[in-house]
């Protein structure tokens, strides 16, 4: 039904041909009445929300929808710093087998991640889900980022117990569990990575 094209750290020819300036991830829906291409995280999620609204991941109620969109955008923007430092360095170490460790990037990434987790733990203390009472796009975006860092064992769960409890609930959802079986070639995830009661 949908075809996702996302080759990490490279731009495949099919992606470049889709649209000027196209970047991964991209989705091509050939089951739609008109073949549809959505490029980039927000375009994909917005398209799926309109084309396949069940389950709904952006609330109907205006203020709840605004909060979900705010935190979804916050997640994409805020974690970019961690991706550019900590995650990039882990990829260089484990996937590309780089012999030169950039300790400054690791330190900057760890520090940035801790500050984000403090904020998120505050939300998890008072809310069932990040944006309020129901699971939204904000939860999935935040959980996806944390999952990438947790794969390498870089998330200090011991300092954010409420966030850890929230993430345990998210990773226990049937829709999220298959992600925990994914492996990055040449690496092994942290021992607790796929453990639902870590």
UniProtKB/TrEMBL annotation:
Pfam assignment, any one: GST_C_3
Domain GST C-terminal: 61-193
InterPro entries attached to this UniProt entry: Glutathione-S-Trfase_C-like (IPR010987), Glutathione-S-Trfase_C_sf (IPR036282), GST_C (IPR004046)
Membrane-spanning segments: none
Source species, domain of life: Bacteria
Record-given protein name: Glutathione S-transferase
Species: Henriciella pelagia
Taxonomy of the source species: Bacteria, Pseudomonadati, Pseudomonadota, Alphaproteobacteria, Hyphomonadales
């Amino acid at each position: 039904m949908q075809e996702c094209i996302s080759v990490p750290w490279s731009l495949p020819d099919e992606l470049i041909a889709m649209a000027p300036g196209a970047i991964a991830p991209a989705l091509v829906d050939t089951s739609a009445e008109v073949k549809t291409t959505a490029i980039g995280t927000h375009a994909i999620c917005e398209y799926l929300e309109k084309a396949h609204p069940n389950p709904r991941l952006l609330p109907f109620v205006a203020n709840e929808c605004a909060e979900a969109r705010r935190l979804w955008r916050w997640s994409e923007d805020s974690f970019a710093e961690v991706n550019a430092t900590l995650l990039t360095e882990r990829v260089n170490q484990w996937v590309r087998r780089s012999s030169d460790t950039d300790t400054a990037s690791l330190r900057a990434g760890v520090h940035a991640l801790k500050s984000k987790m403090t904020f998120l733990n505050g939300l998890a203390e008072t809310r069932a889900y990040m944006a309020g009472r129901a699971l939204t796009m904000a939860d999935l975006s935040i959980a996806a980022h944390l999952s990438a860092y947790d794969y390498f064992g870089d998330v200090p769960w011991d300092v954010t117990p409420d966030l850890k409890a929230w993430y345990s609930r998210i990773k226990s959802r049937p829709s999220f569990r298959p992600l925990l079986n994914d492996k990055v070639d040449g690496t092994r995830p942290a021992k607790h990575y796929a453990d639902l009661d870590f």
